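Supplementary Methods S3. Complex input for the adenosine-5'-diphosphate-bound model.
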Amino acid sequence: MSDAILVINAGSSSSKFSVFGTEGGLHMITKGQVEGIGVGIQPHFSATNAAGETVADELWPSFEVGKRHSSLLRLLIDWIEGHLNGATLRAVGHRVVHGGSGFAAPVVVTPDVIDELNGLIPLAPLHQPHNIGPIATLHDLHPDLQQVACFDTAFHTTKRNEASLLGLPRKYLDAGVRRYGFHGLSYEYIAHALTEIAPDVAKGRVVIAHLGSGASMCAIKDGKSVDSSMGFTAVDGLMMGTRTGSLDPGVVLHMVQAEGMDGKALEKLLYKDSGLLGVSGGISNDMRVLLESDDPNAREAVDLFVYRIAKEIGALAMAIGGIDALVFTAGIGEHSAEIRKRVIEQAAWMGITLSPAANDTHGPCLTTPDSPVSAWAIPTNEELMIARHTQALIFGA
Ligand code: ADP
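Predicted complex, serialized as structure tokens:
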């Protein structure tokens, strides 16, 4: 009988899942999400099959206080076991935002690992608890299911040393206030995909732009991360859908001293109210809406988004001593020919010559054959990356 692997990407108000079969190579069986998770709310469960057809779209009973993870996981595992096409669920891979300095690779979950992950909560208080909750709960509910934790930070543990430091007193650096970098599972997937799509490029100096609702960039050399635009937290670097990205730290001081903001208000400002949404004057955090808008604030938000990416290409090329290729991925990077065109136009001085026809049809190669630096659009697949790690650690495949 064939095996199945469940991949969980758990968040604060929604959780995504994918199920992969292992027979004949990893392949997706079903994927979906549970949205609207909160006390007193009926969560909305939806799922599609491998062909993208809807196989579930229903409201679940609301979860009781303190039973969120156990109720959700019971319902989810029950549903999945009824939709496995004859396979047996054997392992679960989890996306975990923070592995600190210690976890340089995915790890099989044990009680000690859960303790260590709990110890990292202060480094990512908004995400880490939601990632650990299902791991700890499944450990109790289904001790037979082996679990693997895959970290967004792990890929970046190869970064050059200076790229991990901040200009702070040593005691804070020693306490873990360092630049870690995130979206590592996406960058790892792309680095691997490049070895198949463009093997020569994969060995070179590559800047990858992961442009989703969260956005960051990474400089890789010979397939390894050297530096990244995100640092201590996932609010650093590029301007994003609702996050500021890098901000003069004096602005934070100003908000405290002149506007009287406390920690909660600052968190909301930095993570939820800013970025494309904030600069557009509240029009949208969705790039598609902004690109269609004639509003000058929407245009300015897009201009700033593009400029920040272009500037970061220069900074990251510096980190790896030049650039051989630029890769776009995630929602905006994979689908928006307009944003790619505008970024590449600003980076043309680096020797990147766009092929408009290739860009309009999403590549994968976006540049002319004689372009000294190539550009690419490559779809990312963090879930498949997690499934691969889980398969390798649990089944040794
Ligand atoms: P997440 O980071 O939530 O996983 P995605 O990688 O799916 O997000 O990216 C979401 C973003 O992609 C949204 O801002 C959305 O507007 C943008 N996006 C998706 N399709 C397009 C498109 N065709 N053109 C421009 N932006 C797009």
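The chain is about 35% helix and 20% strand. The longest strand covers residues 27-35.
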